Amino acid sequence: MGKPKQSKLNHLQSQLGANEVVSARWLRAHGYSTGLVARYVRSGWLKSPARGIYTAPWVTDLGWESVLRSLQQRDGLRLHVGGRFALAWQGHEHYLRLGESPVITLYGNDRPPGWLAELPMQGKFLYVGAGPFPPTEPVSSDDADAEALYREGLASLDTSSNGEPVVMSTVERAMLELCAAKANTALVLEADALMQGLAGLRSELVQRLLGRCRSVQAKRLFLALAERHSHAWASKLDLEAVDLGRGNRALVEGGRLDRKYQITLPRELDEVLG
């Protein structure tokens, strides 16, 4: 009995890199019983930083990248980093949150496990929900899936020094995800500041994502801000192919009506040079 168990342990340790994590769900699916895992933990061969998640004993700092990779690649969950954090990670953040821990905004149709909120790590995960796009297949960071990811407005990006990628929204999709959030003056002003720096968006991808986006608010706000900043890519869009719904939408109270896109925008925008 000792040899098979030792062999299983060696195989498991070979799966764990410098700071990789594995879930109890993954361990069960690969033949590691609850009792065997408990024995590994008691013997110091595995460490459990939170109920339901395990690392190699030498791991001291968990990174959000390794946790997300485990969810995406090992557990096959339809989750990706999107919205505000994806924009910030790709260099688009309109102000520095000095002294604040990062908030990693997760989108997708699979709710993350409870242990995600209990991990002892810098920063925290915030599950936003499905977001404004239809469900995707479980995401992967394999090179062979690059084109499939692109069609969904997703990309496999290297996020750490070890070169291990995670799946994240492209800037185009992340901006639409941000624009779909609960509207208030602060959100619109933030989206406007970010949009000002997005002169390099890919019009063909924007067109595709506008056609797939299910949030009328997100599409109207995105387009109104793009037009406000006179981005060249925005002039190439076929708006007749985009369903923008009907009727006025009040994003903020006491705002001014953008007659073209039929949304109320904060009057503070008039005081900001586009």
Briefly note the structural class of the backbone: alpha+beta
Spatial extent as radius of gyration: 22 Å
Low-confidence stretches: none
User: Termini, distance in Å?
Assistant: 71 Å
How many domains make up the 3D coordinates?
A: 3
Major beta sheet summary: 3 strands, antiparallel
Order of helices and strands: HEHHEEHEHEEHEEHHHHEEE
Shape: elongated
Estimate the strand proportion: 5-15%
User: Number of helical segments?
Assistant: 10
> What percent of the residues sit in helical stretches (DSSP H or I)?
25-40%
Biggest β-sheet: strands ordered side by side in the sheet: 1-3-2
Q: Residue-averaged pLDDT, rounded?
A: 88
User: Based on DSSP secondary structure assignment, what is the total number of beta strands?
Assistant: 11
